[in-house]
Design brief:
By secondary structure, this protein is of the alpha+beta class. 27% of the residues lie in helices and 23% in strands.
């Protein structure tokens, strides 16, 4: 029988300037009378990690170029935001006239390259961590040294699922555990071999953490995920360990190269 999964939110002070992320987390754990255990996965808001690293930008300091102005006009956005998206995104697919561009950033498909204007003073924008996997690994090493526990760490963010209302959690980066559980070749309930199934453990845990961490004024940027039965590992991780090549992605490939002619589609 698998262990019950427990997710414990940890309150932390509101931050707007760079700070020591590990020291803050350890203080918050003590204040909450919580202690880390072997096998725990520590979820950290990617925004909180970004603020700790000084990844906050003032819109007044951004000088939009011609392409940014063109995107802003076409999609109803602030030109400074458009310029930041151009600077931050790995790829821009398109956009909608609600002020959002669909982008790829660090292996995650998201609006506006993950830029966030919530829970930060007006006129400022929080960018995603510049090297999220290095951030996760550094935090893991520091936490393990401070606690003597073997741990996993993930940086979580909110994400829009294609075709669905509402946000859920996604793992921007992780360290210390295998983020994917490969079920291919194993048998299902009827003995049929699994052909394509791989379970996104890190993203599933990020979604669990997001439920208790909140999105608004909860001030709980940390969560302890306990009992997840993850496979701990010291192997270095990168985007390649979790991001599927575009040619194999049902969403990207279908909506770009694989678009059907209008006559072949079923309008609803």
């Amino acid at each position: 029988m698998p262990n019950a999964l427990t997710v414990i939110p940890i309150r932390a002070p509101v931050q707007t300037e760079p700070f020591d992320l590990c020291a803050t987390l350890l203080r918050c754990l003590r204040a909450a009378d919580e202690a880390l255990r072997d096998g725990d996965v520590v979820a950290v808001s990617s925004k909180y990690a970004s603020i700790a690293a000084g990844r906050v930008c003032s819109l007044a300091d951004v000088k939009p170029g011609a392409q940014a102005h063109a995107l802003a006009s076409r999609f109803g956005m602030d030109a400074a935001i458009a310029q930041l998206v151009i600077d931050e995104a790995d790829h821009i697919f398109g956009g909608i006239k609600l002020g959002f561009l669909l982008t790829a950033k660090g292996g995650v498909i998201s609006p506006n390259a993950g830029l966030d204007r919530s829970n930060i003073p007006s006129g400022q924008v929080v960018l995603l961590p510049s090297d999220p996997f290095a951030t996760a690994e550094s935090l893991r090493v520091q936490l393990q040294a401070a606690t003597g526990c073997r741990l996993g760490v993930l940086l979580s963010d909110s994400w829009l699922m294609p075709g669905r209302f509402g946000t859920t959690g996604v793992a921007i980066a992780m360290a210390g555990f295998r983020p994917i559980r490969d079920e291919r070749g194993k048998s299902d309930l009827f003995g049929n071999p699994m052909a394509v199934t791989q379970i996104g453990i890190a993203d599933a845990l990020a979604a669990c953490a997001q439920v208790v961490m909140g999105e608004r004024d909860e001030a709980k940027p940390f969560a302890i995920v306990r009992g997840a039965d993850v496979q701990l590992s010291d192997a270095p991780l990168s985007t390649a360990d979790v991001a599927i090549p575009w040619r194999h992605c049902i969403y990207i490939e279908s909506l770009t190269v694989g678009i059907l002619a209008a006559a072949a589609t079923c309008a609803k």
